[in-house]
Amino acid sequence: MLRTIEARAQAAVLTLWIVVAVAVADVYAHANRLRLVQDAVDEQVPGVPLRLPTDVVNRADAWVTIGLIASTLAFLLAAAAWLAFQYPVHRRLAADMTAWRASPRAGVAVWLVPVVNLLAPAVLLAALLRAAARPAPLLVALWWICWVGTTVLAGFATRNPEVLADQRLPDALAMGGDILAAGAAVLAIGFVRRLADYAASA
């Protein structure tokens, strides 16, 4: 089981770094489109509709779409790797988890249930780290802020305005969501390493 936990920890760390890399690339894609629109707004003649060359807009939109697809795939991959790591760790620590009495299967389920997955994962993470004698309440709180923030911003950033100038706000929100997603992934890497270190020493 230990060898399995170590291997799953490595897979989780790898996929989380992929999330970070994709988030950085997506920030660039949105920043590029935001810059194009802002430059057009700055140069706009009063009374004349805002316009950009169609090929320029299409190219910027294409990179944003690629970023969205890559971000979604990276998130799903990291989520699968995280849950595959969390489950055996939870089983190993279950007897010492005084603040979380639910089963390892319930620990997986809390990530999948809408609304519940905004709060329960942070409680579970804190309980796992305490049971492993590696508590990190401030880091868990920071991770939770990033997790909820990126979830909320992602919802607003998917808006597709009819007026080109209004595209700036969704792009700015998407960039903020990407930055928070990268922060959450980096913190999660730290959690994986703390839990894996405990498994190796237990």
SS element count, helices: 6
The low-confidence parts are: none
The succession of helices and strands, N to C, reads HHHHHH
**End-to-end distance, in Å?**
12 Å
Number of domains: 1
Structural class: mainly alpha
Percent of residues in β-strands: under 5%
Instruction: Give the overall form.
Output: elongated
Query: In total, how many beta strands?
Result: 0
Helix content: over 70%
**Average pLDDT across residues?**
89
What features would you describe in this structure?
With 202 residues, the protein is mostly helical. It has one domain. Helix content is 76%, strand content 0%. It has helices at 2-42, 54-93, 104-109, 120-131, 137-157, 168-201. Helix 1 packs antiparallel against helix 2, helix 1 runs antiparallel to helix 6 and helix 4 runs antiparallel to helix 5. The model has no long low-confidence stretch (mean pLDDT 89).
